[in-house]
Amino acid sequence: MHVPPIPSLTATDPQLAELIEGEARRQHDKLRMIASENYVSTAVLEASGTVLTNKYSEGYAGKRYYEGQQFIDPIETLAVERAREVFRVDHANVQPYSGSPANLAVYLAFLSPGDTVMGMALPMGGHLTHGWSVSATGKWFNPVRYNVSKETGRIDLDEVREIALRERPKVIFCGGTAVPRTIDFPGFAQIAEEVGAVLVADIAHIAGLIAGGAHPSPVGYADVITTTTHKTLRGPRGAMIMSTAQHANAIDKAVFPGLQGGPHNHTTAGIAVALKEASTADFRRYAHQVVANAKALAAALLERGFELSSGGTDNHLILADLTSKGVAGKPAAQALDRAGIELNYNTVPYDTRKPFDPSGIRLGTAALTTRGLTEEHMPQVAAWMDDAVTAAIKDDEATLTRISGEVRDLLDAFPVPGYTPA
């Protein structure tokens, strides 16, 4: 049963309600290891599903273009104050609809079309909005990219500095979507200062780890910090932009009226709840457990012959190249899904295969940790993954079915926020 219950939806639209119940059951029964996914608390679910969705609130607290903001203003102010407190920043904007619009706001705030922006190349672990060619950020601006080392799988800051000195970007992005190692924020800050660039730390994947003290913070080094509010932070699907006081006005104007109209107030409320949760000792323990679980899982996968990008992980994320296993990432990910293990196929650095049929898989431990799994469970998870990958090669559906049942048996002992089995 969905928690909170959805009786009105069930009565009004049983077809849709049945699909939602099915998805809730799926999230309960599978090892959810997509690195960008998690489980939000029931409190976040409740806040996100309130009458706040009925209200338009263009502008900012105290400066709205619509009347009737007596309760909306305090809600947004609460979210902003909690973001500032949790991340120890001068300024926070909680209105961006998601991570990509948040990054687009950075472009609007600091760049003009044709200006040079520098970011990690997408196949190396960067994000589309850091200047990749198929994104508006790569079409409307002049993108230059840095890679990871072929030998180590890690960012070479000497190469980053060399490119930055040659190309003189106005904005430098650090962070990405498949970066398993600690980001050297001080090193990037030194390079940005040397070339006069605005340093933007995209911490969408690691925001919860930073809030929980399990990853170094970019505060004091990056001029601007962008993040989604889900992933490791365990909030609703939204985003935030944080900055020094110097850039607060430029950021706010870029979000509204530059890119967006009214904020999604129900999402803002969910963000406020998630930030309150992120300030607790329980959340800090969770963040450190996420990293401990990822390290334990990486070690167990290495023991089973998996080839991991950079040789392991420092955070929640693991990137594996399956070439040595004799299978591509896409069929492996599909087989793993049938085995009750949900992750995504992904390019690996210097991949020779196409992005829609790459060599690797990407996985993370945030959702498993939220459910209560610890290091002791990671060898079993690795064993299931190894068996499932082997089964994918042999087209062995019986093994995948067996693993799926064993996964369900394990997860029955670990409740999910938002769902209770009937």
Describe the structure.
The structure is a single chain. With 422 residues, the chain is α/β, with parallel strands linked by helices. Helix content is 44%, strand content 13%.
Secondary-structure-derived class: alpha/beta
Give the full name of the CATH homologous superfamily of the largest domain.
Type I PLP-dependent aspartate aminotransferase-like (Major domain)
The radius of gyration over CA amounts to 22 Å
| Residues in helices, as a percent range | 40-55%
- The overall strand count is 15
Family: Belongs to the SHMT family.
InterPro entries: PyrdxlP-dep_Trfase, PyrdxlP-dep_Trfase_major, PyrdxlP-dep_Trfase_small, Ser_HO-MeTrfase, Ser_HO-MeTrfase-like, Ser_HO-MeTrfase_PLP_BS, SHMT-like_dom
Main location: cytoplasm
GO molecular function, one term: glycine hydroxymethyltransferase activity
In brief:
The chain is of the alpha/beta class and 422 residues long. The chain folds into 2 domains: 47-278, Type I PLP-dependent aspartate aminotransferase-like (Major domain) (Aspartate Aminotransferase, domain 2), CATH 3.40.640; 289-411, Aspartate Aminotransferase, domain 1. The chain has helices at 7-12, 14-29, 42-48, 72-87, 99-110, 136-139, 157-167, 185-195, 207-211, 248-259, 265-278, 281-303, 329-338, 366-371, 378-394, 397-411, and strands spanning 31-32, 59-60, 63-64, 91-93, 116-120, 142-146, 171-174, 198-202, 224-228, 239-243, 307-308, 317-321, 341-342, 344-346, 360-364.
